Structures are given as structure tokens and as C-alpha cells.
Amino acid sequence: MIKAIVFDLDDTLYSEKDFVYGAFEIVSEFIANKKNLESKFIFEQMMKTLDAHGRGKIFDIVCDENSIDIPIDDLVEVYRNAKPKISLFVESLEILKFLKKEGYKTGIITDGISIVQWNKIKQLDIKTYVDNIIVTGDFGDGFSKPNTKSFIEMARLFNVKPCEIIYVGDNPNKDFIGAREIGYKTVQIKNKYSEYGDLQLEKKYGPDYIIYNLLDLILILQEIKK
Fold it and tell me: Which chain regions cross the lipid bilayer (predicted)?
């Protein structure tokens, strides 16, 4: 019997791109104010660099190409403390309300730097709808998914057996391996925001179910009850 449903956060319950773009806008405004530049121009440079090189060295490249002499650490700090406007997917809110109404316990396990993830959680106002939240960064280095620590801890917080929990995520590289190892049921959400829709793993590492809309969880819960 399933008693709890746990979700990944980024690109499962909301679009991470909304956060990234919003945070880059905030960093662009910071640079513009420091260097008397147009924030729109800086933001466009960031978007161009993002498309060409990804997020890893975006501040280094933009600053180097535009002769901006601001310490990169300062820009990283602005980014990590950014609180852009973001919102849950409509279906995320609907499924969380449904689960609460039906008496299921709900939670979130999310990877990332603690302050960034907690800022996202605050901006999404998601604490209203879930019982427990774990940011793996709070454990220190080395405990990101698929490490089993967060999954074990969530089961402890719920006071339920791992086999009584469903975990929903979008990234097969990390969302299902650790969860399945300790006995969770797993569900992959393949939506238009996920980068991992075509990624295939060995059956023993892949999800138990695949859905294309979070509301399809209702059908899975009904099937498991039979």
C-alpha cells in the first residue's frame, strides 16, 4: 500500500529555466549598475553564452569578452542569492492538492546548493503543500542523488517503509537508482521541460512507470490499489 509520494523539484514541479533566466536577469542588473552598462545587453550576452557553452563558465566568458572587471565570486553570490519570480506547473499544484485531500504524505528531495534550492522552495511557496523537504546539499558533499541517504531519511521522516513510497523525477541518471535500491516505487515524468526524455537505462535502474503529465499519478495509484 502506498502511503507517501515524493517529488524531485527542478523540471518536475516547475521549470528550472524560469529560475535560471530570472537569476541571470538579476545578475545582469547587478553588473549594469556596477559598470554603467545596459542590463539588457548583458543579459543577451549571457543567453548567447548559455546556448554556446552551457552554465558552467558563463560569468567568466561574459566578463572576459566584454572587459568587465567584477570578481566572478561576487557574481556567483548574486546568482545563488537571487529570488526571481517562479511558479509551479498547474498540474503540480493540482496533484499536490489531490494527494493532500486523499490523505497521502508528500515530500520533495532535491539536489543542489542549499541556499539556491531553499530560495526556489520559498519562491514557489511549496511548503504549504508538502509535509517534508530534503535538500541534499544540507548533508554536505557527496550525498546528491543517487546516494541513498536522502531516500532513507525521507522514509524515516514519514515513518513508513520505503516500499510504501513513490518517487517521481525526470532524470534517470540519478532519480531512480538510489530510490529503487532501498525499495521505493519510481515514476519518470517526461514533460517538455526535461532534458532526459530520451535517456535509457538498464531496466533495473530505470523507473517502474513513465508518465507525461503529473496528474497521471492518479491512475498509477489506482492501479497499485487493485
Answer: none
pTM over 0.70: yes
Question: pLDDT at position 200, please?
Answer: 67
61 and 102 both lie in a single domain: no
Whether the Cβ atoms of residue 191 and residue 88 lie closer than 8 Å to each other: no
Range of the domain at 25: 17-80
What are the tens digits of pLDDT across the range 32-78?
Answer: 999 999 999 999 999 999 999 888 899 999 999 999 999 999 999 99
Q: 129: Cβ–Cβ under 8 A, 6 or more apart, which residues?
A: 93, 96, 97, 100, 106
d(CA 124, CA 84) in angstroms, rounded, equals: 10
Is there a single domain that holds both residue 68 and residue 148? no
Give the distance, in angstroms, between the CA of residue 108 and the centroid of all CA atoms in the same chain. 9
> Strands (DSSP E) along the chain, which ranges?
4-7, 105-110, 132-135, 165-169, 185-189, 209-211
- The total number of structural domains in the chain stands at 2
Residues 62 and 108 in one domain: no
Of 105, 123, 111, nearest in space to 149 by CA: 111
CATH number at residue 158: 3.40.50.1000
Helical packing angle, 72-80 and 16-35, nearest 10° = 140
Residues 25 and 111 in one domain: no
**Burial of residue 7 (number of CB atoms within 10 Å: 0-12, 13-18, 19+):** buried
Q: What is the full DSSP assignment across 87-125? A: ---HHHHHHHHHHHHHT-EEEEEE-S-HHHHHHHHHHHT
